[in-house]
Amino acid sequence: MLLLIPVLLILAGIVVYFVGNAIFSTEKGLQANWGISVPEGLREVEHYEESSFHGDGYRLTIYEVQADISLNGTFFDYGDMDREGLTEAQVALIENVTNQFDPKNGIAIPPREVYKRQVAKFGGILLCLYDATENKFFLYEEIL
Q: Has residue 22 got a pLDDT over 60?
């Protein structure tokens, strides 16, 4: 009987973990925080976020573009993105996030020529970079 209680607690924890991941997916977080929908054909390669009770801190999500998808008219339409160099603040954000999470598929610092789009909302920042050579999007978030 005493063994039953720890087993039930472990099972409850596992259920809460999987239900939480289903409810609070990366895509739902981008929609809730930034109003961005992730189109079909973008495959999440990596995702990192700081553990935080309030959801603040750094996040990094890397998406790979699958063959023959149209991104026209979406947030990820790199034809509408800026090609100018990165600002010092943007480079600092990339360095901070990269140093914190050490992603396997991270972008080179300083990044080679990339397409970029930045959104600022509620004091937070979302920096989206598209690397045409890698055919990947890198989303750097700083939630305050």
A: no
